[in-house]
Amino acid sequence: MLRDIAKQRLLHVDLSKRTTWVEDVPLEDLQKYLGGRGLAAKWLYEQVPAGADPLGPENVIIFSTGTLTGTSAPSSGRSSITTKSPATGLYLKVSVGGHLGAAIKYAGYDYVMIHGVASRPVYLWIDDGKVELRSAEHLWGKGTREVDDLIKEEIGDPTIQTGIIGPAAENKVKFACFVVSRYNSASRGGIGAVFGSKNLKAIAARGTGGLRPARGKEFFALARKVRGALAADAGSESLYNWGTAGSIPGLNEMGMLAAYNFSRVTIEHGERLSGQYLLSEGYLIGRESCFACSTACHRFVRSRSPKWGDVLDSGPELETVMSLGAECGITDIEAVLKANQLCNDLGMDTISTGHVISWAMETYEKGLISPEQADGLDLRFGNAEAQLALIQRIARREGLLGDLLAEGTRAAAEEIGGDSWKWAIQAKGLEQSAVDTRAAKSYALAFAVNPRGPDHLMTETYAEFGFTQESRDVIRKVTGDEKYADPRLTEKRAEIVLWHEQCYGASEALGFCVFTSTAAFAVNPENMAQMFSLAVGVPMSEDELMLAARRMVTIEKCFNVREGARRKDDRLPWRMMNEPVPAGPNKGMITDEAMLENLLDQYYTAHGWDLETSIPRQSTLKFLGLDSVCVGIPQIP
Amino acid sequence: MDEAHIVNIHINAAKCTACKACELACSFTKEGVFAPSLSRIRVMQLHDVGMNVPVVCVNCADAPCIAACPTGAVRRDASVPVVRIDEEECIGCGDCVRACPFGAADMNEERGVAIMCDLCDGSPVCVDHCIYGALSFGEAMPTAQVKRLAHAHTVAAQYRGR
Question: How far is A141 from chain B (nearest CA, A)?
């Protein structure tokens, strides 16, 4: 099917009734919410009633391609998956790369909304206009790699694209992921467990259609120009050469490499976890792109380890080597590659897996988890063998500890008790990604207000470090002065966070990888608005684009408000607010309670949200045109 | 035809990241839509070995597609050293698709014609969009020499280790 980019289509799949239907998306909705993450936020708000069980039939999964996904716009192939999180009980959006989004787009759909629960395991097969629920009984219990092979064999085409859950998601592990195009992962907040609860093992797609931009030649020329600018950006070059884990040496030097469950900020032999090390020691055998990407940060690695066995797999990402490596006191890269492979195959988020284990290690060393409770594992920091065993037990909920940790750090700390909650590095029920927020105030604020919990994947404020001229330019544009490109300052942090959350949101709605707009800066609100306009054929200014992104951020907030979340929930993990940086150039730094309150005041004020409760004011909702969308929350004028 | 004088898109698969920018650029330029299925160059992702291999017409010296075409629509004119399909004369029978050993010819089912790379009149848009250096264009180093070099590297690796 060849179609205009402006004519978006939403495919509904009801697993309970085994029915499917297609809905056309009104053009004015596309303009108002930009597509992708934006429209999905609105639909989630409308579809999932307050208090719904995230793992029950009332929850929906919304798979959204970006509005520009499938075009030549550079790095525009990412998708968002939106649902209610079983980890937090709040709004959840997870972004993922790979090629599945493009395949669904070419099959004729921009969005897929999954309703209900299947009575038996199934997978969804989208083959151009044909949509089918097929039995997945024979796939249940199997790892993501094997299932990918089996589905491709069954369909008879190794070039189809898949998204698959592993055994962890079937067992409703609270940080189970959804593995896309074999080597990419939608990971956070237990997104995979929602698929598992619906008995939906996989989505597979093949699309042979195409997309027509409204003003094709101009769009194509602009996209080519931005592609060139992006390839020339210093940030992109580093990501290509070393991947995200190329930041390890710098972080270790700056004293920002989270280690030993955030109790240290450097680690001996940290360089062994770096992308540079993967390259120099011959582990790296290839670089992979997501669809239409001009960066190729993704890795393909091979390890022939006498101790840990062979690995031929994707990754590892920066967050993976930090969480499964440094945070657990492990710098044996071959062990980390093995742990990464296990997580990918069993289908678990490496960030949360690493952190739930690093919490268990600290708790064990402090004597709150006894050797009996650890089911015989010697859970001291640095014991890779114990970590690998525990990863498998968590995925299959084996043993006391495996079953307990599968519930996530917050629940585990509640069960173990004592002071163990103080080193549970979580807020809202989500394990914090391995970013030290004590010495970077925009990050601290962004993490605290993040609707899905503390991580860098809803808003990344990398520019505040001012490492490059491009990032200092962004800070000048946002605050009026380059001097605010200093992460230790608390002034202007709300402005920086608001601009970034909007830039980030717009990027995701359009399908752009946020590395292109908030790590490298060649994709920016101005050219995003132009590309949107040329592709869809309606006017769009930079200001309108950012306003639409503010709309989506506000709906996401309102979803949480309706679930009962308030100002008191916008918190950082206790350790991040009470234990200053122990060593290195940032020694003594902290974002304490008082400082966070100050940052929150700035942020809610800038948003037009009530200071006491953080609830968006009616006047704000009216200004954004959301007063008839965000209903059912306390009304504050 | 003298091999050294056949211009070609040269492929270095080791550098291909499967971003598919080539497919998007090609299909838009040739068909006015973004549709990898209509691209003259296609990237095969081999997940099991961690390699991506672009496949495109190699301009065979003795081209089976030319021999197979019943109407003479597939031909290489003396003036331009490139195999091309004359869409006016193409009857959409698919004989060239079946004859091509590489799958470099395909059908545009909607328009009922065969499609194949024509090197964009000497300035291939796929090469322009490949920022990873997997595609390049120009006169080829003779194939045998390329193979000799690759073999030499293999031999060298046996002596020096990797």
Answer: 21
Rounded CA separation A272/A260 (Å): 16
Distance from CA of B18 to the nearest CA of A (A): 6
Rounded Cα distance, B158 and B152, in Å:
10
Residues of B within 8 A of A341 (CB-CB) are none
Q: pLDDT tens digits for B14-49?
A: 899 999 999 999 999 999 999 999 999 999 998 777
SS (H, E, C) chain B: CCHHHCEEEEECHHHCCCCCHHHHHHHHHHHCCECHHHCCCEEEEECCCCEEEEECCCCCCCCHHHHHCCCCCEECCCCCCCCEECCCCCCCCCHHHHHCCCCCCEEECCCCEEECCCHHHHCCHHHHHCCCCCEEEEECCCHHHHHHHHHHHHHHHHHHCC
Contact A391, A409 (CB under 8 A): no
Domains in chain A and their CATH numbers? 2-212 (3.60.9.10), 234-424 (1.10.569.10), 437-623 (1.10.599.10)
ipTM for the predicted complex comes to 0.94
Is B132 close to A296, i.e. CB distance below 8 A? yes
Give residue ranges of B with CB < 8 Å to any A CB: 14, 17-21, 24-25, 27-29, 31-38, 44-45, 47, 50-52, 110, 128-129, 131-132, 162
Instruction: Tell me the C-alpha distance between A124 and A146, whole Å.
Output: 17
Domains of chain B, each with CATH number or no CATH: 3-160 (3.30.70.20)
Please say whether the beta carbons of A176 and A190 come within 8 A.
Answer: yes
Closest residue to A210, CB basis, from B19, B35, B44: B35
Residue A540 has pLDDT above 70, yes or no: yes
Q: What is the mean pLDDT of chain A?
A: 97
Q: How many CB atoms lie within 10 A of CB B143?
A: 13
Q: Which residues of B touch A279 (CB under 8 A)?
A: none
Partners of residue B113 on adjacent β-strands: B108
pLDDT per position as a tens digit, A309-339: 999 999 899 999 999 999 999 999 999 999 9
- Separation CA A386–CA A377 (nearest Å): 6
CA gap A234, A246 in Å, rounded: 13
Segment (H or E) for A133: strand A130-135
Could you tell me what percent of chain B has a pLDDT over 70? Answer: 91
Q: For residues A267 and A436, give the distance between their C-alpha atoms in angstroms, rounded to a whole number.
A: 14
Query: A313: part of which helix (H) or strand (E)?
Result: strand A309-314
Backbone angles phi, psi at A592, to 5 degrees: -85, 180
The least confident of A117-131, A320-334, A476-490, B125-139 is B125-139
